Amino acid sequence: MDILHEYVKLRSEFGRQCLFSDRHVELLVDIPPNPKLASQFVVKETRDLGVQGCGEMSEHEVNTKRFEYDNQGINHVEGGWPKDINHLEMEQTIRFRKKVEKDEIYMNSVMVLGTVIGQCVGQNNAVDIYQEYFKDEDMLDEVQDAPSVKVANVYRDPHHVKRHVTCLSWQPNGGNHLAAAYCYLQTDKAHLGMSQESYIWDIENPTQPHVTLHSTSQLICLDYNPDNMHSIFSGCVNGQIALWDARNGNSPAARTPLVACHTDPVYKIVWLQSSTGMEAFSASTDGQILWWDARQLSEPTDRLVLDLSRKENLDTALGAISLAYDQSTPDTFLAGTEQGAVVCCNRAGKSASEKIVCTYDGHHGPVYAIQRNPFFSQNFLTVGDWGARIWSQDIKETAVMWTRHQAEYLTDGCWSPVRPSVFFTVKMDGVLDIWDILFKQNDPTLTVKVRDEALCSISVHQGGSRLACGSQEGIATLIEIKSGLCTQQHNEQELLAEMLERETKREKVLRAQRGGDDGADGGESGPKALFLRSEHDFHNVMETEQRRKQWESRQRHYP
């Protein structure tokens, strides 16, 4: 066991002072380029990043019209009758009404007031007088509570050498078990006697694991079968895929052979929707996506190489570290790569060119998490480098919404299963951010300091009221979410649909404008032609103005 000490001091309290001076340029090393190494590099597309050195400020003024109000009381009694008419006598009132109705002034007054009354009637017809404004009053009062969370339990790695909690998976159908994969990712400080075990926790018992998963290699990822509460697929550091049955002991029920699995660590595995309910696919940094049948793990049933040149070359393939799959489109999936690109793939394609549909390139570093919105499958969330982005499947050049750059690196994220506008992210400083994009987009709705060390993984229970965060020191923290963040608000789904549609249209308009600016210089509508036309019009206006002034000058001298 290595004992590491860290001493924190001010720079002025230790070491020799750094004295800087000006001097001429000195060539220390000159390494000429090697053309043979060029084929081993993967070309990355150029990305533009705007940097703002100061805080964002805006100024807005509104002048409204001021009205002065005056309250007066009115005593409503029977009135408006002449003194000689007794309003209690029906015969006198009827006789007086007939006399007034025959008067010509009365007829003109009725004609003038008819248009005013018609306008008032029209306004009344435009308003639903039977609308129930407060029918959802109970739900609104509940949602208006301040968003908050509470730490319910803490589950610690029983092994003395603490490892990272790299993946978390909840038991389906509302189960109370939480599966956690433990792996020490810092290979330069790996220990020979490190434990290879991962655990399944009962959330009511944080003292000891419910089931211990013994493996020959550390688990990086795992996933519960949505159709079976006891079946788990996992991916190992050595590239193997293992199938577990929590009811039948601590050893895997089946395991892939080393010659037929990934050659790099398996970072993500996802169950597929199938007639048997026993199929899954995995992603690894070796550049391959492999499909598996749990009934026969001797070899993969299908294979896809993430080579953007469509040549199926593993040397230039992108390493996949995250996957997104939606049951509504069983043949289409998204793969997040360590190069920052998101690859959209179609398993039903017959050739390599048909299987890789397109790419979404917007992150500067690895895409650690990718997930489709549970309510709008055409929009998906990606988490990487210093921010989270929301994409539309129709726009490949840029995201439709994104968070501002955070001070710390983001490591994982996911959508809320019950609220379409809420998603969660975790960061290297141990902070959990909860975002509600209907409430505000630039800053999180709630920020919680969960641990002092970095958070590596996050998973939300299908009920939406609980989530688990895994840390770098092998601690899984169970957090309870208050009702304001796990209860869908009134018209929330419709409002988010309008927002996403509006942002998608805006990006399409901007893309069309950028495409027009980048077009050819020739033609009547090209940028060069428009510039020349504007310059020509300017000179014509100047010449006309000069001739007019010269004519006026002659008129003054020679009247």
Structure description:
This protein is an alpha+beta fold. Among the domains are: 147-492, 7 Propeller (Methylamine Dehydrogenase, Chain H), CATH 2.130.10.10; 519-557. Helix content is 19%, strand content 28%. The protein is built from seven helices and 28 strands. The protein has helices at 90-101, 104-126, 137-143, 352-355, 483-486, 492-517, 527-557; strands at 149-156, 164-170, 177-183, 198-202, 211-213, 219-224, 231-236, 241-245, 254-255, 266-271, 279-284, 288-293, 302-305, 320-325, 332-337, 341-346, 356-361, 367-372, 379-384, 387-392, 401-402, 410-415, 422-427, 431-436, 446-449, 455-460, 466-471, 475-481. It has a four-stranded antiparallel beta sheet with strand order 1-28-27-26. Strands 2-3-4-5 form a four-stranded antiparallel beta sheet, with no helix packed on it. The chain is extended, with a radius of gyration of 35 Å. The relative contact order is 0.08.
